[in-house]
Amino acid sequence: MAALDSQTPTAGPSARTTGITSPDMGTLNRFVVDLFGVMAYGELSAFERLSSDARFSPTLRDRAALGRLAVTEFEHFEMVSAHLAGLGVDVEEAMRPFQGSIDSFHERTRPADWYESLMKAYVIDAISGDFYTALAGRLDEATRELIGRIQSTTEQGGLLQSRLKAALADDPRLASRLALWGRRLVGEALTQAQRVGIERQFLGGLLFQGTAEDQERETVQLFAQLTRNHSRRMSALGLTA
Question: What is the pTM of this model?
Answer without folding.
Answer: 0.80
